[in-house]
């Protein structure tokens, strides 16, 4: 600025410079988000050969499946008075999971991709507690229970019951004592199941009562390991025409509405959990994940921020609405599978999945009946729900939508009743936990390093954060300038950065044109209120002749 100019010229120079700074800062502030969005859109092209596609096809995130079984320890006394099942938790039996997508079909007209997924599990003994080969577990006979559930109140109930009573070689008590390995993945030969299949094949009249089991063995995960079809067929949006649709599930098994639940509860929507649209920070509300395990979608509640490997993320959690059955929230009434006028049948906290699980009287809850009605806990002994241990969480990187951490955990229960079968007479009527699982996935350190350091496809995010810092500094500076200009005695406010230090504060220096007085103040970066106070303090000090150097506190 010219030193020989008149005071009026100096004021106009100062005003012009200040207005220029403000215009530049505002223009950059307005245009930068659009620049960022366009760059991210270029990076988020979901086609073969891109990193986004390759990471989806063969996920680099470490995924573990922890399985826990409930061992019924006091079955010999189940006909006693005031009896409660006592349950002992076994596990975890930990498996490393690899997920592959197969039979891919691209539809350019609909901008979708249809695929199956194969999940491969390998046992990790070092990460497990227990012996998969030799541990035994006692549980209710799920085949017997399912038969009773399916034939209750049917004209064939007495006929089936008499067959079971006359053939004790089929089954002679309500319980099973089996190897953990068999009840999980390997399956065990079940005489009752084998004869049920034979009976259904020979009697067409019974076919309408039962859904013919696809296996000749029973195991909770039998037939699932390496299966390409068990989870079903998924159709997702590719996001080519609108990248905010990226990963959104359009169809499951070729339909957008399942037959298992009414209305919204049967709608196919949300994502499968691995591929999310970017800029999740614009939608700090709820997110929806579709789970083929329950044939329905789960809506998770926003739960603030979190950090994974030093990376800032947004967290969502499962709440009490997820399995409410219409007890407290009318929008969840469609979870009830009974006729509408009879709902709700189940208390909050355990959702009926019988239609999804081939007619078995099964429900799904959080582990240990976390967030469930107290009556479920009162019926059994041995459970202890804890929020940090049993809640369902998901953390996403907000700009890219990349999952940083997932802890998905659910419990499978059987609705135990007599169901009119002699073999189930006097069985305690309880919602019986049989197993629960925890599926964890976390960004590995290599990808976390890429995300933090701005490498590869993630560098745009880092660039946005750096720009935000600089824009904040500009904001602090131009507010000080503009506030300084409000004084009749115009001052030039300069920013001084001390060399050798990454600034977390700026030093502002005011030089008054009329009397050549000056002062300096330290203003924290990005805090416009303090910058404004700095300008006022500087102006006041100069006006009253009390200017002093290195004012370090302006609060």
Describe it for me?
- Helix 1 packs antiparallel against helix 10.
- It contains eleven helices and 20 strands.
- The protein is of the alpha+beta class and about 550 residues long.
- It is elongated and about 115 Å long.
- The strands form four sheets. Strands 1, 2, 3, 8, 9, 10, 11, 12, 13, 14, 15, 16 and 17 form a 13-stranded antiparallel β-sheet that branches. A three-stranded antiparallel β-sheet has the order 18-19-20, covered by helices on one side. Strands 4-5 form a two-stranded antiparallel ribbon.
* Shape type: elongated
| Count of discrete alpha- or pi-helical segments spanning 4 or more residues | 11
Runs with pLDDT <50, length 5+? 455-466, 474-532, 542-555
For the record, give the distance between the C-alpha atoms at the N and C termini, rounded to a whole number. Answer: 31 Å
Instruction: Please state roughly what percent of the residues sit in beta strands, choosing from under 5%, 5-15%, 15-25%, 25-35%, 35-45% or over 45%.
Output: 25-35%
The counted number of beta strands is: 20
Taken together, the total number of domains comes to 2
The radius of gyration over CA amounts to 32 Å
Describe the main β-sheet briefly.
Answer: 13 strands, antiparallel
Mean pLDDT: 81
Instruction: Classify the secondary structure makeup into a structural class.
Output: alpha+beta
Report helical residue fraction. Answer: 25-40%
């Amino acid at each position: 600025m010219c030193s020989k100019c008149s005071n009026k010229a100096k004021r106009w120079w100062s005003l012009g410079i200040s207005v220029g700074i403000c215009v530049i800062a505002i223009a950059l502030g307005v245009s930068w988000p659009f620049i960022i969005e366009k760059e991210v859109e270029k990076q988020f092209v979901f086609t073969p050969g891109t990193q986004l596609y390759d990471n989806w096809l063969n996920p680099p995130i470490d995924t573990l499946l922890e399985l826990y079984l409930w061992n019924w320890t006091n079955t010999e006394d189940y006909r006693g008075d005031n009896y409660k099942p006592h349950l002992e938790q076994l596990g975890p039996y930990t498996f490393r999971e690899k997920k592959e997508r197969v039979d891919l079909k691209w539809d350019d007209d609909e901008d979708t991709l249809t695929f199956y997924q194969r999940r491969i599990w390998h046992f990790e003994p070092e990460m497990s507690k227990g012996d998969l080969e030799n541990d035994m577990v006692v549980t209710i006979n799920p085949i017997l229970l399912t038969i009773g559930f399916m034939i209750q109140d049917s004209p064939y109930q007495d006929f089936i019951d008499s067959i079971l009573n006359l053939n004790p070689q089929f089954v002679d008590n309500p319980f099973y004592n089996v190897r953990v390995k068999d009840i999980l993945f390997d399956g065990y030969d079940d005489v009752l199941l084998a004869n049920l299949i034979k009976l259904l094949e020979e009697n067409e009249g019974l076919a309408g009562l039962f859904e013919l089991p696809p296996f000749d063995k029973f195991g909770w995960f039998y037939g699932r390991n390496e299966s390409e079809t068990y989870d079903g067929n998924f159709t997702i949006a590719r996001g080519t025409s609108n990248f905010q649709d990226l990963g959104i599930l359009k169809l499951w098994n070729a339909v957008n509405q399942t037959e298992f639940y009414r209305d919204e509860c049967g709608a196919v929507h949300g994502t499968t959990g691995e591929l999310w649209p970017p800029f999740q920070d614009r939608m700090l509300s709820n997110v929806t994940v579709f789970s083929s395990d329950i044939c329905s979608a789960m809506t998770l509640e926003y739960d603030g921020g979190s950090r994974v490997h030093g990376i800032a993320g947004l967290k969502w959690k499962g709440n009490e609405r997820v399995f409410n059955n219409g007890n407290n929230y009318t929008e969840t009434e469609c979870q009830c599978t009974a006729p509408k006028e009879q709902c709700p049948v189940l208390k909050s906290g355990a959702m009926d999945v019988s239609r999804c699980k081939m007619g078995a009287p099964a429900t799904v809850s959080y582990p240990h009946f976390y967030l469930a009605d107290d009556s479920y806990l009162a019926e059994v002994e041995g459970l202890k729900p804890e929020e940090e241990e049993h809640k369902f969480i998901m953390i996403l990187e907000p700009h890219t939508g990349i999952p940083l951490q997932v802890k998905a955990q659910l419990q499978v229960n059987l609705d135990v009743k007599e169901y009119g079968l002699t073999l189930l007479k006097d069985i305690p009527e309880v919602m019986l936990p049989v197993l629960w699982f925890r599926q964890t996935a976390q960004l590995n350190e290599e990808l976390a390093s890429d995300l933090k350091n701005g490498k590869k496809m993630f560098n745009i995010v880092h660039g946005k954060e750096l720009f935000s810092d600089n824009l904040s500094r500009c904001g602090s500076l131009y507010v000080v300038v503009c506030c300084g200009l409000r004084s009749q005695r115009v001052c030039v406010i300069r920013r001084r950065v001390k060399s050798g230090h990454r600034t977390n504060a700026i030093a502002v220096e005011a030089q008054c044109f009329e009397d050549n007085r000056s002062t300096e103040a330290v203003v924290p970066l990005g805090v416009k209120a303090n910058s404004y106070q700095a300008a006022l303090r500087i102006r006041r000090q100069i006006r009253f002749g009390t200017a002093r150097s290195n004012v370090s506190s302006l609060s």
